[in-house]
Amino acid sequence: MPSLTAAASAAPANPLPPAPINAWQAFDGTRSTGRTRHLLSLDDFEAAARRALPRPIFGYVAGAAEDNRALADNRQAFDELALVPRVLRNVAQRDQGVTLFGTRYASPFGIAPMGIAALSAYRGDVVLARAAAAAGIPAVQSGSSLIRLEEVVAAAPGTWFQAYLPGTPERIAPLLQRVAAAGVQTLVVTVDIPVAGNRENNLRAGFSTPLRPSLRLAWDGLVRPRWLAGTLLRTLARHGMPHFENSFAERGAPILSARVQRDFAGREHFDWAHIAQIRRQWHGPLVVKGILSPHDAALARQHGVDGIVVSNHGGRQLDGAVAPLRMLPAIAEQAGSAMVVMLDGGIRRGTDVAKALALGAQAVFVGRPFNYAAAVDGEAGVAAAIGLLRAELDRNLAMLGATCCAELGPQHLVDRRAPWPLAHATASPPFDNPTGDTRP
């Protein structure tokens, strides 16, 4: 039986640095080529994916729980913060790279785990992981993916793996052994799905788990011929009926099987004792995803967890759950220097990345936009989306007067809802070092 230390002991290769960013490119009209040449922001990929994907598939990716309140608040939380630039700071040498678990990444953002990505794009999990590896950023493969993790890790070494672990020890240990044998170094355990969220919007869009063949489902595919030929039929011809490949040590159910529901049930019993068991078995970096309470962050620290992802599952679980950004400062305080603090949910711009870093995150993860990018143009689309976000963050660092991510902090933020700081605005700040830099 392979050792769980095998993956952890392998020295991770640091990604190559990205090509230099031309911060003035927006002025000279230079555009990328290919299918994404007209897409200038992450939001642009959503509209393009809506035209490219069948209604049920797009609805599954875009949808959230119940009334979408948690989904909307993920964005609202970012909009409530304004940025405070600093000037005359000599920002000619900028580096947005960060180090996570001993590996240097070129940017402080990565690709979040997304289930059944292989229905959005042909070999979607491989596409996402390869694009991330080429760009020098982390990617996390979902445990509810349709491509074996061994294939993804072989195509993109260093890919993280996210597991939906069952609350039964006898099934946890074999899965961990398989993950280690595949060469995974960083394990992410998602903990915010004791039961399934009420995703009625999926049903309205015609998506169900398992997928149920119908005339409407067939019609939705026929009116998207590029997706039908390039993703679905190509997958069936080359790989057969997709299965949930990574739920357990063994192969899971096919996407059309009624057994899918049974495979994803039984997590109500999952608790901190299981995390303790996993910590004893897994000797690489262990990340817990789905933390929103500072109390849970403290428990994660006490159980020897290496990192946490502050997340409400993209608004797909508990509708009305607090936006991760709102809880980030308190959670970062609980984590201290003992854990790496990351965040996902609502990231659409480089300014969003900067705001999260200023509030205490060391990295963020982006989900839906990269899924849309894969649907629009495969690996090239994901690379284009990564490039847009990276260029935005580079400009943002310069305009905030920062040369690296570590220089961002609360001093760069103002709550738009707070009373205007008129008393501070009229006061003359001390100015006792007119020639030197006074970072931060």
Automatic annotation (TrEMBL):
Binding site for FMN: 113-115, 142, 162, 190, 289, 311, 344-348, 367-368
MF (Gene Ontology): FMN binding; L-lactate dehydrogenase (cytochrome) activity
PROSITE patterns the UniProt entry points to: FMN_HYDROXY_ACID_DH_1 (PS00557), FMN_HYDROXY_ACID_DH_2 (PS51349)
InterPro entries: Aldolase_TIM (IPR013785), Alpha-hydoxy_acid_DH_FMN (IPR012133), FMN-dep_DH (IPR000262), FMN_HAD (IPR037396), FMN_hydac_DH_AS (IPR008259)
Protein name (database record): L-lactate dehydrogenase (Cytochrome)
Binding residues for glyoxylate: Y60, Y164, R199, H313, R316
Organism of derivation: Acidovorax soli
EC number annotated for this UniProt entry: 1.1.2.3
A Pfam short name: FMN_dh
Active site: residue positions: H313 (proton acceptor)
Group of enzyme by EC: oxidoreductase
Family (UniProt): Belongs to the FMN-dependent alpha-hydroxy acid dehydrogenase family.
Required cofactor(s): FMN
CDD domains: alpha_hydroxyacid_oxid_FMN (cd02809)
Record-annotated FMN hydroxy acid dehydrogenase domain positions: 34-418
